[in-house]
Amino acid sequence: MFNVLGEVNWVAVPVAFIVFVVVGGVWFAFLFSGSYNVSLGREASAKPVTSPLFFAGPPLTSLVITLTSAFLMAVLKIDSLADALVFGLVTGVGYLMANTVNIAINPNFPRPLQYALISGGYNLVGSLLVSAVLVTI
């Protein structure tokens, strides 16, 4: 199974990764910043507490997701946009959104469904975009 590393579109991987990270920044800082804060029990206008983990964590996890998608798409020989979108939908809903909901139903989240919709929605959109970029570049 690991013999497909040569079939990974290594040119598209950094592009897909950058798209994923940029969409995350726009998603959480602009599109849903107030709703996201409320889902966490904060004031809508609250500013995030920044730390090295705050800046490094999301890009690192986005890189892992992008690399995993690229690898699985190579294993599955996904090379058309239609198949890539199906892959992005299946992994986005079946793994990323489902896991986000599982995390959100923890009693520490004051609005778990709102959090799951916002974060899970980002993961679904990100999965679709990453999958599309990986086959179109």
List the helices and strands and how they pair.
Elements lengths: L11 H20 L1 H7 L12 H24 L5 H24 L7 H25 L1
Helix pairs in contact: 1-3, 1-5, 3-5, 4-5
Summarize the structure.
With 137 residues, the chain is mostly helical. It has helices at 12-31, 33-39, 52-75, 81-104, 112-136. It is elongated and about 50 Å long.
Verbal overview:
- This protein has helices at residues 12-31, 33-39, 52-75, 81-104, 112-136.
- With 137 residues, it is mainly α.
- It is elongated, with a radius of gyration of 16 Å.
Q: Let me know the number of strands.
A: 0
- Strand residue content: under 5%
* N/C terminus separation: 23 Å
Provide the succession of SSEs.
HHHHH
Tell me, briefly, the overall form.
Answer: elongated
**Gyration radius, rounded:** 16 Å
Tell me the structural class: mainly alpha
Largest sheet: none
Mean pLDDT: 96
Task: Enumerate how many helices there are, as a single number.
Answer: 5
Helix content: over 70%
Poorly predicted residue ranges: none
List keywords for this structure.
single chain; 137 residues; mainly alpha; 73% helix; elongated
